[in-house]
Amino acid sequence: MDLRRGRERTDTRLRCSPRRAHRRRDDRRRRAGQRLSARGALRQHLRRAHRRARPRTLPDLVIVQGSINDRRLGTSGYREAVTDAWDALSALYPDAAIVVLGPAPHALPVAKGTARIDRDLGELAAARGWWYISPVEREWITEGNYLAVIDVDEGRRHPSDDGHRYLAEQVASALAELAAPAPAASAQ
Q1: Domains of the chain by start residue, with CATH
Q2: Are 125 and 131 in contact (CB under 8 A)?
Q3: Helix (H) or strand (E) holding 61
Q4: Strands, E assignment, 77-122
Q5: Among 31, 44, 81, 188, whose Cα sits 20 to 30 Å from the Cα of 23?
Q6: Structure pTM?
Q7: From first to last of its 188 residues, what are the pLDDT tens digits of the chain?
């Protein structure tokens, strides 16, 4: 989960010795295929990130992105895992506005699993009264810009450098739209 934003980023990665890094890598391998929220791992990660960032940073805005990485795991426990993670996030940053950024599709047409995650996150964010930005609904990645945004040469289908720049611009634009005051109703 990336708690960093814009150019004023706060590095939330653990800084540790090479020995601890090997231990962390082994732990990650052992947990491969498990959801981060299993056994409270995500909650612990958020607490560690918060402790490292405090007191330097008390954000007024937190952007959390819903990933497509769980798309193959199915629906069992997904909403509960998201709810647990978001509960932990809102407990750590009670005064921050939280914006949920949906998954950006890595393949076209948009896969059913990606569309399901997008719908689930949108519904869960709406239930909390949080802003939700859907790259799928807004059609940020289309047939027309797919090869400029997604790096297909490496076989992993992730955004290219230009793609990351483009997606960041889209996020900034969407945030500006959300933050803009609603037009006043004209008096008749």
Answers
A1: 38-137 (3.40.50.1110)
A2: yes
A3: strand 61-65
A4: 97-101
A5: 81
A6: 0.69
A7: 333 333 333 444 444 444 455 455 555 444 433 444 444 566 676 667 666 766 566 788 999 998 787 777 777 888 888 998 899 889 888 899 999 999 999 889 999 999 999 999 999 999 999 999 999 999 999 999 999 999 887 667 888 899 999 999 999 999 999 887 766 655 44
